[in-house]
Write a structure and sequence with these properties.
Chain A has 195 residues and is mostly helical. Helices cover 65% and strands 0% of the residues of chain A. Among the domains of chain B are: 39-104; 173-250, Rod shape-determining protein MreC, domain 2 (Thrombin, subunit H, Beta Barrel), CATH 2.40.10. A six-stranded antiparallel barrel of chain B has the order 1-2-5-4-3-12. In chain B, strands 6-7-8-11-10-9 form a six-stranded antiparallel barrel. In chain B, β10 (230-239) and β11 form a beta hairpin. Classes of the chains: A mainly alpha (195), B alpha+beta (284). At the A-B interface, α3, α4, α6 and α7 of A face α1, α2 and β4 of B.
């Protein structure tokens, strides 16, 4: 693992800390800037597949450590119908899926078309929040999707997306500092395995 | 797929399965460690947020005063400012007196806590308070305000705790309707971003005589919340095929909430006791 990868991990940890200062905006349906998912998505375009999985594990682990709710508690005779919550660790899978999405645009990013990656970061955040809400509905039953949820997801994604050029700039600075070149080695199939 | 990637994928799957199969206790330990690590950031974040809101208020006030300055005499403005300041102090004094009175009057031990962070996650209705294990705050303890029930402690760490609010779907409370034999389970609705949040009281009799404006209190059953704590007032009642459901307006204004009280088993008075509580929480 190179110095660049260590710096990316440090960037992720820093993003986790900065996330603590990002409040929900009540006037925008409780939308907020999701810094940790954004940094993760931007990093995914700039690292190889194995590193992406490592980052997904770290981010998902940290995210769930902060957000997982505990059990209902109390007398089961009274609280006979406890409300289920998402299990610790589900975010690891969701992060990996988002990361995989970003890996597909790596060749475009290499051609210095960071705009596509920035837009896709917004799409990634939208997909993540949408999937999270669907999972929540799945484990709790009674599917509901009020417009306020859609607005919250959309506004969170849009707000977060605006910060992606800044994150890409920080990552490119790190890459140039550590003389790291972003190569596309993702999931390309090599002929020697087919033969 | 390259062998290196395949190995990484396998390791990732093993790691994800490991995380997904952790027990409740292990998850709690992980969360406690995590929150202890980020607690300095949470506190400084809260102070920055307070300073920012004070600054915004100050800017707004400055603009108002500037307009008034052009219209009125300097002396009059000065007096108005003094009156405004006195009113602010009066309001603060009333609030503190109310809090102190509540703390003295409640028939159980409570510890005052300040909300340092609101809604830290996207979907859950939670807040973070500046009291944790070392202050005697434990998991599932009720959180109150002079107006009524606020919620319960979800994840305490050394210095801070996460409170799951009554408006969250996961916070279930055994409730009764005052003046009727009706009792049920009250909880928040899944998403109530629009307007003020409401609560859903379920498992009522389908033919119950429930009218808007009736008060809803805790029953004290279930081992989580003390009895006769105000939850809210009935807004509407809908009789269903098996059970009736009522929409309840919460007694607590969750948006304006600044100070809350955590019901603790016994007050921690001495430094020794606080130290022992900290040691216990570390060992658990």
């Amino acid at each position: 693992m190179s110095k660049y990868h260590f710096s990316i991990i440090l960037l992720i940890l820093a993003a986790c800390m900065v996330q603590q200062f990002s409040p929900a905006i009540p006037t925008l349906f409780g939308a907020r800037v999701l810094i940790l998912p954004l940094v993760f998505l931007c990093c995914c375009v700039c690292v190889d597949f194995a590193s992406m999985l490592l980052l997904a594990f770290i981010c998902g682990f940290l995210w769930d450590a902060q957000h997982t709710l505990g059990a209902q508690g109390g007398d089961p005779a009274i609280y006979a119908d406890p409300v289920e919550s998402l299990r610790f660790g589900y975010s690891i899978i969701l992060y990996a899926m988002m990361g995989l999405l970003m890996q597909f645009v790596q060749p475009i990013f290499r051609k210095a078309k960071w705009h596509t990656s920035a837009i896709l970061a917004g799409v990634g955040i939208f997909s993540y929040l949408f999937a999270e809400y669907l999972l929540l509905n799945f484990v709790r039953g009674d599917f509901t999707f009020p417009p306020s949820v859609l607005y919250r997801i959309y506004l969170s994604s849009a707000l977060t997306m605006f910060f992606s050029p800044l994150v890409f700039w920080i990552i490119s600075q790190l890459a140039s500092s550590y003389h790291y070149s972003i190569r596309y080695e993702g999931l390309r199939q090599k002929h020697r395995y087919i033969d | 797929m390259k062998p290196q990637n395949l190995i990484a994928l396998l390791l990732f799957i093993v790691g994800a399965v490991w995380a997904l199969t952790r027990s409740e206790r292990t998850v709690r330990n992980i969360q406690s460690t995590y929150y202890s690590a980020i607690s300095p950031f949470l506190k400084s974040g809260a102070s920055i947020e307070t300073k920012a809101s004070e600054f915004i208020q100050e800017v707004e006030h400055s603009k108002k005063w500037e307009m008034k300055y052009k219209l009125a005499k300097e002396e009059l403005d000065q007096r108005r400012m003094e009156v405004a300041h006195l009113r602010k102090l009066e309001a603060e004094n009333t609030h503190l007196n109310q809090a102190l009175k509540f703390q003295k009057n409640v028939p159980f031990h409570v510890i005052a806590a300040k909300i340092i962070r609101r809604q830290p996650s996207t979907w859950w209705h939670t807040v973070t308070i500046d009291r944790g294990d070392k202050h005697g705050v434990g998991v599932q303890l009720p959180v109150l305000s002079p107006e009524g029930l606020v919620g319960k402690i979800d994840a305490p760490s050394k210095d801070t705790s996460t409170v799951i609010l009554l408006t969250d779907e996961k916070c279930q409370v055994s409730a009764k309707i005052d003046g009727t034999p009706e009792a049920g389970i009250i909880s928040g609705l899944r998403d109530t971003a629009e307007g003020s949040p409401h609560l859903l009281l379920r498992f009522l009799s389908k033919d119950a005589n429930i009218k808007p404006g009736m008060l809803v209190f805790t029953t004290g059953r279930g081992g989580l919340f003390p009895a006769d704590i105000l939850l809210g007032t009935i807004k509407t009642f809908e009789p269903g095929p098996l059970f009736g459901e009522a929409i309840v307006e919460p007694a607590v204004d969750f948006k304006a909430l600044k100070t809350v009280f955590v019901k603790i088993p016994k007050p921690l008075t001495s430094i020794g006791e606080i130290g022992a509580a900290t040691a216990n929480s570390t060992n658990q």
